[in-house]
Write a structure and sequence with these properties.
This protein is of the alpha+beta class. It has five helices and seven strands. It is globular, with a radius of gyration of 19 Å. The N and C termini lie far apart (69 Å).
Amino acid sequence: MKDARWELTAKLGKDVSTWSWGRLHQLTLKNQTLGTAGPGVVQRLLNRGPWDLGGGEAAVDATGWNAAGGYDVIWVPSMRMVVNVGDWDKSRWVNLTGASGHAFHSNYTDQTDTWAKGELYDWAYGKAAVDATTKDTLTLKP
């Protein structure tokens, strides 16, 4: 217990009222090309985070970590979805990152804050719902 108190005080400060699991349990999204082993400047350009997270391996909102290796989050669900099979348009979902794999695109991590808060987006499924939420349409012709 004393060792734990010393460790937490060193990491989080003396004021216990400011302690939170999320300040230790953080997720950094690492680009799987040069974000894990590239030069430091490239890693800083490609990677995003950290995000303070709650949860643990046994929670519904699972976040994994290895206590022997520290508190950093090492795995998470890449998407969350709640499906209403009685009314598909009442289903909800969120992606961990965004809809783009390009590090400098606005959709690279545009869903991550929502994901980290445990929130979901409406999932337009039927034609009327899709039409109501469509902003742009791309038509491909041979």
